């Protein structure tokens, strides 16, 4: 019904790996269900990165926006959060607003060429200025939050209700959340705990998020059925329409048949010391559901002493594992991994006993998660990792570190029942080897809590897959949400034109 040739949509992602990839996946999904032209506008280096992540036949068009981070104190050639220390990431956030003028120039050109404004601008929650841009070009802005509903709602509410300080208790309630969802000060990243509206982080997040609340609607990378409570909280808090268009995952990750091809996403520029084949061969040598996969996302790592405790605990647990290791906090993430960060001869022992595989820097995550030997995922709970794990029915042991990860973990434990939390924070994480052994044991053993988590994860997996169902009478909820979203935009525009 929405196949009018000249319609187009413009997308503005924030410049971080975990945002660019879901934007690209959403662009593809919009194009697949509407045949509209979709433009993604971002900086040159990020366009380059996205281009190399898409098959050449993709219909998404990329627009390079000139960007000079140097004006905001960024080193040359830095255009996304990759390998940036926290102190510099805040500059990148502030610098992102400088994309507004080139974005307006691009829109002037494209509106002129096409003789009409885009049907909407889909922008990142951190690029709230897009609301005004959309208005001045005669269209609407839709915010796309790349996280889940519960986690995003918590993050938004935390920033808009500062400060969060110790009173008589470390627990507090959060506007928008029912009383049963108490939050804890340890769930706040240090900069959020220190924020009071005057610091550099608040001065970026507060205005941009507030502007995003004036959008026409929000899109969320989740599945309505798996996060019922979270979606309700989110809708009530925003008081805007929210369409759940997830899971934004590669098609191959959602089917049962293996094509023999790697299904992991975006390896561009990521070096690993092991091939996907060797990784999968190693998994083949293990029992079904016996392996713990450990990874902290694309840009996080843990402290050196935490790493040591984790290694000792893992060895004591005697569970097989694949661990993506990177230099600890305070060291160059791309630098060499020094043996002294692990117990003496740890890697050799694990290799000899065929107990553990250490992967340096980057692993084929989706291939590992979809392998039948993988039994649980020790994860930082970045939302892409969460969706990837659950789409394969793999329960989670959480170690949230930054952003909204602690709220994802909270939701996974309290609402979804697919997770147990091991600890929180990077260098500050309170972790002892004995607790690692005990939690991993509980999560991976056949009975009790571990079995219940696995059972729930299996249910969630089916719900995720059903959301993308195309055949049969009933379309999956993700595809239906996309249809409703587009129909609403068209109805709104027709109304405005009347
Ligand atoms: N990833 C991967 N191999 C790695 C580390 C990460 O393939 O060794 C991918 C992972 O599959 C996911 C993304 O990188 O798609 C990480 O996104 P997430 O939202 O989980 O965390 P972030 O990197 O944004 O903290």
TrEMBL record:
Record-annotated Glycosyltransferase N-terminal domain positions: 9-136
Xref: Pfam families: Glyco_transf_N, UDPGT
Entry EC number(s): 2.4.1.-
Coiled-coil parts of chain: none
Gene Ontology molecular function: UDP-glucosyltransferase activity
First-tier enzyme category under EC: transferase
Alphabetical UniProt keywords: Glycosyltransferase, Transferase
InterPro entries: Glyco_transf_N, UDP_glucos_trans, UDP_glycos_trans_CS
Family note: Belongs to the UDP-glycosyltransferase family.
Protein name: Glycosyltransferase
Lineage: Eukaryota, Viridiplantae, Streptophyta, Embryophyta, Tracheophyta
């Amino acid at each position: 019904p929405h196949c009018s040739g000249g319609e187009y949509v413009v997308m503005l992602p924030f410049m971080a790996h975990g945002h660019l990839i879901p934007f690209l996946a959403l662009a593809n999904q919009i194009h697949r269900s509407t045949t509209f032209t979709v433009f993604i506008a971002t900086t040159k280096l990020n366009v380059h990165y996205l281009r190399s992540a898409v098959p050449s036949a993709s219909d998404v068009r990329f627009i390079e926006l000139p960007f000079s981070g140097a004006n905001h104190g960024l080193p040359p050639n830095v255009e996304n959060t990759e390998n940036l220390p926290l102190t510099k990431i805040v500059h990148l956030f502030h610098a992102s607003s400088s994309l507004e003028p080139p974005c307006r120039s691009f829109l002037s050109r494209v509106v002129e060429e096409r003789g009409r404004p885009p049907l909407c601008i889909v922008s990142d929650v951190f690029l709230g200025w897009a609301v005004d841009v959309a208005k001045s070009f005669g269209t609407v802005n839709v915010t796309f939050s790349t996280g889940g509903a519960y986690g995003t709602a918590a993050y938004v509410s935390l920033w808009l209700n500062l400060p969060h300080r110790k009173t008589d208790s470390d627990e507090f309630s959060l506007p928008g959340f029912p009383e049963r969802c108490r939050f804890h000060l340890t769930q706040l990243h240090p900069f959020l705990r220190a924020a009071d509206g005057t610091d550099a982080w608040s001065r970026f997040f507060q205005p941009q998020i507030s502007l995003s609340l004036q959008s026409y609607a929000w899109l969320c990378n989740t599945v309505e059925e798996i996060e019922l409570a979270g979606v309700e909280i989110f809708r009530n808090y925003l008081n805007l329409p929210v369409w759940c268009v997830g899971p934004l995952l590669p098609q191959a990750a959602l089917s049962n048949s293996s094509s023999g091809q790697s299904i992991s996403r975006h390896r561009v520029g990521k070096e690993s010391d092991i091939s996907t084949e060797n990784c999968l061969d190693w998994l083949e040598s293990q029992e079904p559901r016996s392996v713990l996969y450990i990874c902290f996302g694309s840009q996080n790592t843990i402290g050196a002493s935490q790493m040591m405790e984790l290694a000792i605990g893992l060895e004591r647990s005697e569970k097989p594992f694949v661990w993506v290791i990177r230099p600890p906090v305070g060291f160059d993430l791309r630098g060499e991994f020094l043996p002294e960060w692990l117990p003496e001869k740890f890697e050799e022992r694990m290799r000899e006993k065929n107990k553990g595989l250490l992967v340096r820097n980057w692993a084929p995550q989706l291939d590992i998660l979809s392998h039948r030997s993988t039994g649980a995922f020790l994860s930082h709970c970045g939302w892409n990792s969460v969706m990837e794990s659950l789409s394969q029915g793999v329960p989670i042991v959480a170690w949230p570190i930054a952003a909204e990860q602690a709220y994802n973990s909270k939701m996974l434990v309290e609402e979804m029942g697919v997770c147990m939390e091991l600890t929180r924070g990077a260098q500050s994480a309170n972790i002892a080897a004995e607790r690692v052994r005990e939690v991993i044991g509980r999560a991976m053993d056949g009975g009790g809590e571990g079995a219940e988590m696995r059972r729930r994860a299996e249910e969630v997996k089916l719900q995720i897959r059903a959301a993308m169902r195309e055949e049969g009478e009933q379309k999956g909820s993700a595809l239906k949400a996309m249809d409703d979203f587009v129909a609403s935009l068209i109805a709104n525009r027709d109304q405005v034109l009347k």
